[in-house]
Design brief:
Organism: Staphylococcus epidermidis
Number of helices: 0
Shape: elongated
Number of strands: 0
Protein name: Aap
Distance between the termini: 186 Å
Length: 120
Amino acid sequence: PAEPGKPAEPGKPAEPGTPAEPGKPAEPGTPAEPGKPAEPGTPAEPGKPAEPGKPAEPGKPAEPGKPAEPGTPAEPGKPAEPGTPAEPGKPAESGKPVEPGKPVEPGTPAQSGAPEQPNR
């Protein structure tokens, strides 16, 4: 027959943990270096002198003109038609005899008196 088991041994109590070390203070940062002064720019090179222009080429000689074509000959003129003969003039009519003048009538004698009133 099997033997009975042994009773278990009681556990050991846990050991206390190691306490944490306190943190180190932060180190101060490195101060920034001052900026360098700007270097002076390169001076501009002087411009090149302009090249002289090319001389103009001589012009071509003009071509000679063409001779003129002869004109069309004129047609001969037509002979003039004869004019219409003039009609003979009429004889002049004789004038009327002049009537003798009338004798002048004597004027009316002026009346004395007040002048007439003009109409208003």
